[in-house]
Structure formats: C-alpha cells, structure tokens
Amino acid sequence: MKILVIQMKMIGDVLTSSILFEALRKEFPKAELHYLINAHTFPVVQNNPNIDRFVLYNKEQSFSKLAKKMKAENYNVVIDVLSNIKTAILTGLSGATYRISYDKFYTKPVSTHVFSRKIEPKTVGGSAIEKRLRMLTPLSANFPAEIKPKIFLQEDEIINAKQKLEEAGIDISRNLYMIGALGSSEKKTYPLKYLAKLLDQIVEETNAHLLFNYIPNQKTQVEKLFGFCSSATQKNIHLDIYGNSLREFLAITYHCDALIGNEGGAINMAKAMEVPTFAIFAPPLHKENWNMYEDGKKNISVHLRDFKPDMFVDKPEKQLKTEWENFYNEFHPGMIEEKLGKFLNMNSK
C-alpha cells in the first residue's frame, strides 16, 4: 500500500498532521508513506522514522509538474489534510482508491470520503488531533482517538545547543524560559507593553534566564519589547542567543523549562518535546481548536474570552479579525498574572 498525506501549510500544521504517520505505521507496517509539505517546514518533521519520503514543494516550482508527479506515483490512498482548491486538484488527479478530504464544495466531487472540521473533542488531545485521526477511519477501525505529535532531535543537536548556552554564560541549572515574543503576524502578537509586564513578573518570581524566539529581521521588534521591560528583567534577557535555524531553535528549546508567549507553531513544537507551555491566544482565534493537551499544569492557555466572554457575544469572525487591536487592548496583563503565577510555580526549579 502506498499512502500520501498532504499538508502544504504552516509549521504547526505540518507537525500536528505528522501524527497520521505514527498511526498508519502501526496499522500498516509495510505501507510506503509519503508526506507532501512546503519545503521550509521540513525541519519540524526531519528524522521522523515513520515517514518514508518527503515531497517538498515551494512556490517557485511548477504546480502542473507537481500534479503530474503525484499522478505518476500511483498512490492507493491520498489524505488531503489541507483541503484547499490546489490540493483538491492533486487529490482528484491522483486516481487513488481512497481520496480523503475535509468537507468543502470543491472536495466532494474529487474525494471518496469527506469529513467535517467541526467536532466535539473527547480526549485531552483536542479537536486539532482528533479531526485529523478521524480522516483515517475509512482505512481501518483500529486507529486511536489521539496521538501526541513528536519531534525527533539527534543527540549531537542536543549537545551542541547545551554547549551554546553554556558558552553564553547561561547556567541551565537555573530556570530558563523561551519566550514566544512575536506571533506569526501583528494580529497574533500580544501587545509588547503588556508582554513586558508579564516578563517582569516571571523574573521577579523565578529569577529565570529569558531567551526570545525570533529571527534576525525581527530584532527591532524584540529590542522594543526589551526596552519596555524593567532594568531587573533586562539583566536576565539574552537577546544574542537565538536559533540560527529551526533545528537549532528546537534544540535550544529542548533545554528550557517552559515556552511562554504567543500561541503558534513554537508552542506546538515545545509540546512535541514535552516542554511545558503557557500560551496567549489572539482574540480572533478559537482556543478550543489548538489548545492541545491542555491540562492546567504542564500546558495552560489564556484567551480574552476566558475573562470577558460578553465581548464576544454576537461578534462574527470577520469583526474579530478587523477589530483585533481593540480586543487586545482589553486583554490587560493583570488578567493573566494569576494563571501565569500558578504555571511558574508548577514549572520552576
């Protein structure tokens, strides 16, 4: 059996959908398993032993050539987790016996099985996990209801990251937190002045070293955040320590006691390495879609809706997305401090 999973999206989505391969490998140990993803997301699934081949795509490539290549592979099963118009075309052209997608008007004509994205989660894995695994049910009734995503670091990556931290004068026997300072866009970034107040709280309560998750072209923004912090907090921030690649970021985060900050791919990656997380959700997002494995101890998240639910009554998603700044302004750090304090108490040395 030859199976293709399609997830040409962001890093967090690619990591989360990789759970399908663990499930498929256990149920069909001799199957040939391929993963079609955007090339820049490959590091998050690198070394995954359950995936036989990665099909890497980037915008410079010809989509028509990709379609011809997919058709020539003669897949028995295609699981289109992304389910947009382009991937629906790939699914339809594949000629696979099983063509599985999410339920959209353009996937129905080309798919043998379609599933709604709307589910009521029954496990701690949450809807993001369960709705993906449900896509496997046409193939067998033996798949589990939930599987936790995993990242596969090599020993030399872990050792090199530890050495980098030690050479920078960071004592990892002290508390060390990775801060998700910036979201994937401005609309998904907790106001920097507010975040600075939370960083002051972290240092005051734990005296932790703080690292920022950012790339060089975001340095102006993180320097702005640094400037909003108290002088005591600034002494514990190491702006010059960051991952020069996604794999190095993962290895550095592996040594951290927690990842705290904006919800996004970094939060999901930390969870996949069993690093505790405290996530701040952007107001337009639905927390229940991505608060995977939240247990109130190791993984905690906060959303403005938790504190001011009346603000969201009769507010369509379009309005939330256009008025995001107004909603963020109402999400004062004082609302978060108590939950953050409990999290620090449970996840500090």
Automatic annotation (TrEMBL):
<dbReference type="InterPro" id="IPR002201">
    <property type="entry name" value="Glyco_trans_9"/>
</dbReference>
<keyword id="KW-0328">Glycosyltransferase</keyword>
<dbReference type="GO" id="GO:0009244">
    <property type="term" value="P:lipopolysaccharide core region biosynthetic process"/>
</dbReference>
<dbReference type="InterPro" id="IPR051199">
    <property type="entry name" value="LPS_LOS_Heptosyltrfase"/>
</dbReference>
<dbReference type="GO" id="GO:0008713">
    <property type="term" value="F:ADP-heptose-lipopolysaccharide heptosyltransferase activity"/>
</dbReference>
<keyword id="KW-0808">Transferase</keyword>
<protein>
    <submittedName>
        <fullName>RfaF-like lipopolysaccharide core biosynthesis glycosyl transferase</fullName>
        <ecNumber>2.-.-.-</ecNumber>
    </submittedName>
</protein>
<dbReference type="Pfam" id="PF01075">
    <property type="entry name" value="Glyco_transf_9"/>
</dbReference>
<dbReference type="GO" id="GO:0005829">
    <property type="term" value="C:cytosol"/>
</dbReference>
